[in-house]
Amino acid sequence: MSQEETTPLWSFVRLEEYSAPAAPAAERVRSGFGRLWDRLRRSGAADDDDDRVKPAPPSLALRDEAVPSPSWREAAQGLDVALGQWAEGGGAPDDQVRVVVGPSGAAADEIVGAWANSQQWGSVEPPRTEQILAGGEDWLAGMEQDETPRVLTRLDQFYLRHHDGLELVERLIERLLTTRGPFLVGCGSWSWAYLTRTLKIDVALGPPLAIQALDHRLLRDWFGQLAAGRFDFCQSRENGSAVVVGKRRPESHGRDDSPGEDPDFLRQLAAFSRGIPLIAWQGWRDSLRLESDGPTGETTREATLCVPAWSELDFPGPPGAIGPCDHAILHELMLQGSTTAELLAHLLPYSLADVTNSLHVLRKSRLAERESDAWRVTRLGYPAVRESLREAGYLAGVI
Questions:
Q1: Rounded percentage of the chain residues whose pLDDT exceeds 70
Q2: CA pseudo-torsion sign 356, 360, 362, 363
Q3: What is residue 298's predicted lDDT score, i.e. its pLDDT?
Q4: What crossing angle do the helices spanning 108-119 and 73-83 adopt, rounded to 10°?
Q5: Rounded Cα–Cα distance for residues 286 and 128 (Å)
Q6: Which domain holds residue 118?
Q7: Last residue of some domain: 246, 272, 307?
């Protein structure tokens, strides 16, 4: 039996074993200068394709039916398998804490939270900004020290990259090391890299688990599950090749690609998203189009949805002139997951006016978005932001 046949949809590995899906050999993930070249090449192409009637995006209601929000119940079950007997307690005093790492805001914290709910574990609420900057003594004093199993879903929210911003998380790590009951911690991969560099958190808490990247086969299975057999998905007819995910998918053994199926689109999506579930989910959802001879956007279970050629998709890319302030803001958002413009101005050597202007530039580039008062990196902007920060020399997370 091959490894592909036995690979579960949701599995967890040690962070050092994490590997992202590779792009197809004949293609490349469109980012950076390659993406700019693609845009220039398409702008000078013949007008033949411009006159073609392109399939329209489905209605929001139809997308909600075809690609609903994940529940994470099965992913939580995969985490339960990875944790094994540890969650039952009774382990060694130095094995009371386990850490799960993932990109902040891209499913890791949701999965940890779903697992905690299934186990009826208590949750530790994060401190306020002023409590972090004050050293967290009052907050820690109110933290119970009994043997009740607990979960902390986002360690990212327990520190700030500031000269007064690490004392609380240092004390928290000491508290975790002396806890008398099991404690599950979720942490963004960029925060984990930063805290490893500054506080050696990997030595204190041990090697973390990470959700394994979803390759094109796993994405095909997952998207099929989300659609629950109600929809067909195919490549647009102008492109010829099929991306079969829905009810027409031929029966096949294991996870080998079915005869006649071209998985190139899903390979590209897996590589672009680095196999990160919510980034791939967002990319799949945003790429869907209605077949030209299908329904006109009404919610229906008879709809056939298609995807265009990968090169036709317009995912976010870095702005043409990204500067030091932009990079600093993006790195802070990758560390914290989300934060306000006012706090960014407090943490960074830039004025509030500079920060606000930069955030609006990043929003126009679809790399950042605001929800209520908090800013965050967009899901589809995450790959471009990650690559841009790595090229600029910033400390990056593994995922």
A1: 77
A2: positive
A3: 45
A4: 80
A5: 35
A6: 89-211
A7: 307
